[in-house]
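User: Could you write out the 3D structure of this protein bound to pyridoxal-5'-phosphate? I've included everything you need below.
Assistant: Certainly. Input first, then the structure.
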Amino acid sequence: MRVPFNRPKFAARETEYVLSVLRSGKLRAGGDFTQKCQDLIASRLNNATVLITNSATSALDMSLILCDVGPEDEVIVPTFTFVSCGNSILSCGATPVFVDVEPDTLNIDLVSAASAITPRTKAIMPVHYAGSCYAVTGLRELADKHRIRIIEDASHAIASKVNGKEAGTFGETGAFSFHHSKNITCGEGGALIVNDDRLTDRAGVIHKYGTDYHAFRSGKKSHYEWTDRGSSFMASDLTAAVLLAQLERLDEISNERRATWNRYHDAFEVLERSGVTRPNYCTGSQHNGHIYYLLLPTAADRTAFIAAMASRGIEVTSHYVPLDLTPGGRKFGRSAGELPVAHSAAERLVRFPIWEGIGSLQDAVIEATLAELSF
Ligand SMILES: Cc1ncc(COP(=O)(O)O)c(C=O)c1O
């Protein structure tokens, strides 16, 4: 038996759409499939502006340009996140300021974030870790009080909600990831969400090499030229073809993942007696079942557990090395004080296989986990 950590599932429609792009010969960015993906996502997000990108990393890079973050500026970011967050801040010449996370959800800690604000703070980049939403109201109040922009890293969180409102709609801008490891995927891909209408036109320019190509295409200009910062942040229509087929099944996929998540959560309640901690998501937050994780009592327990599960053919895995502890983080960023929750969680966290179609293999994972962790 082998249970992989992740296994994306593609149905006949992905193939049908990809063949349709190939037959049309129009593989470049901005084609019909890209437009349909953008429209479908926008329809879930109060008709926000959506631009399909080649990754969430690109959507974060674009966000920082859009928020005019530059040298001399600081951007607050939870230390428990992916390296893209640190690098996108760095690519604007700004300094990442690492803050702690709170223990129940591993999302940004409001007290730690507040303590990190200085006159140089330009933006905050919270993450909806594992698809559980950070404290959106508290962070918005903090950001507005200090005139700081929120760049919402919703890479994990498509289809997650807080009080009925979709993740991706809480920041001035937001990013989704459609990387191979995410709930819906096109291999590599992402989306930039723009919730502030004043940023919409510029987002189109940054997306397309920093040119006014969109104005040219819509007949407002006779030619297009370099007008702003930007890059090739777009994705091919071939990528969008796969993505559209996945997006059309977004609710179905999210529901199944949530059911798998709930089964783990119920089955592992008994492990709390052994000092194991389960995630504890706040009321009003509806997650999308992106990650199921446990925090084991010690780092040594985690190492032993991963090895024991591997020997049973089951892939369970750790997650981020906190950015402030990495060579890059030490060189390019600074920490706002001690970050004990993130440091401890990162040593003890283990993620479980969760994917559409896992079916009865989940029984084997639960059985093996209970056997290995009932201390
Ligand atoms: C929190 C977070 N942000 C950003 C990214 C980057 O996503 P992408 O691979 O689409 O660039 C990831 C990747 O897993 C992530 O976990």
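The CA atoms of residues 304 and 372 lie 9 Å apart.
User: Perfect, thank you.
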